[in-house]
Amino acid sequence: MRRLVERAKGEEGYSLIELLVVMVILGTVLAGLTTVFVSGSNAEADLNRRFQAQEQARVALDKIRADIHCASAAQQQTIGTYTGSIKLAVGGCLADASTPTVSYCPVSVTSTRYQLYRSTATSNICTSSDTTRLLVADYLVNNNLFTTSAIPQYSLQTVGVDLKVSANTKNTNADVYELTDSIVARNSARCATSPSCAITSVP
């Protein structure tokens, strides 16, 4: 019992050097763990951003396909300042019979990133004042999305669609996800001229 009392009264403890050594070791371990957690969090955010970009591209292609199928004419043109855009003459084919045209505009965010907007407006198309514009795809790596060419004889008009997306903000040439399709404008007039017909202008 006396020994326990004497030990309790003792003033021995840790020295400053021992405390500093423990703190350095603990700091090193925590720094390593923090790096692992931050790296994992960044990887998860990158994977989620990539998945969202790819999913948006798939949904956008479905929406574009439905609009082109509905169109009686399709013309690639520069709309406002947005090169690489396309305008579709849909007439009364859509649920909203008052919509004469549907436009798709690739809008530049940076020199290597574009956002694709869908618009049913007839003026100020795809601009910030366009209340009908809808973002359908993001992280596109260029604005060369649509191709229209002369219509072969006895054929309907087709529109080529090429969507390339990359959510890699450091290198847009890496992790590129590409969707391509050649879509027929089912309501277009069949070409009767040999060897081909010119693209109908869409105002």
Which descriptors would you attach to this protein?
single chain; 203 residues; alpha+beta; 5-stranded antiparallel sheet; 3-stranded antiparallel sheet; 2 helices; 10 strands
Q: Can you describe this structure?
A:
It contains 2 helices and 10 strands, in the order H-H-E-E-E-E-E-E-E-E-E-E. The chain is an alpha+beta fold. A 5-stranded antiparallel beta sheet has the order 1-2-3-4-5, with helices on one face. The longest helix is centred in the N-terminal third of the chain and has 55 residues, at 16-70.
Strand and helix layout:
Layout: H1 2-9, H2 16-70, E1 73-79, E2 82-89, E3 101-110, E4 113-119, E5 134-140, E6 146-148, E7 151-152, E8 158-165, E9 177-184, E10 196-197
Antiparallel strand pairs: 1-2, 2-3, 3-4, 4-5, 6-8, 7-10, 8-9
Biggest sheet architecture? 5 strands, antiparallel
Tally of individual helices: 2
Provide the low-confidence segments as ranges: none
Q: How many domain modules?
A: 1
Share of β-strand residues: 25-35%
Order of helices and strands: HHEEEEEEEEEE
Structural class, by secondary structure, is: alpha+beta
Distance between the termini: 103 Å
* Percent of residues in helices: 25-40%
Strand arrangement across the biggest beta sheet: 1-2-3-4-5
Average predicted confidence as pLDDT: 90
Q: Tell me the number of strands.
A: 10
Outline: rod-shaped
Radius of gyration: 30 Å
